[in-house]
Amino acid sequence: MEKDIARILISREQLDRRIRELAGEIVASYPALDGHLTLVTILNGAIIFLADLIRHMPVKMRLELITVSSYPGKATESVEARLTRDIAADLRGQDVLIVDDILDTGKTIRLVRSELARRGPRSIKAATLLRKPNKAPRDVVVEFVGFDIEDEFVVGYGMDYDNHYRNLPYIAVLTQEAR
Prior knowledge:
By secondary structure, the protein is of the alpha/beta class.
């Protein structure tokens, strides 16, 4: 698997440090967390980010998992986002934090935010580990960003290519031969 890596973009140490900081920023942004925080995580890519993030958030919260398909199979370009696994939780009166792995075209966040808004939450915010600022639409709001990156296809730390490389402990760019 290591032979498929062209270069490491973000090291495990950088991830650990920034996720700890990001958790602090998130907790500080909610003035009175009263047990009404629900994290809605977009699977599969954000699961490792979620696990590390919540370890640094010493607050009462609920977790929900939602699945959106936008990079089927060996695709490296996003296609139309579609919800493939919804949540059943009642979000009325909840502060909702959407947790995603990467903000690229904005299709996924836009879809999930729209779906969740119809359920009557008190507030909706979003956190993403990575953002491609030169590609992400300006109208897609993400309040918490771990890292801004160039427009490259990345793997590792939960993100995949054809459902491989999720288990890498860092964010990397694949070689051309591996794609």
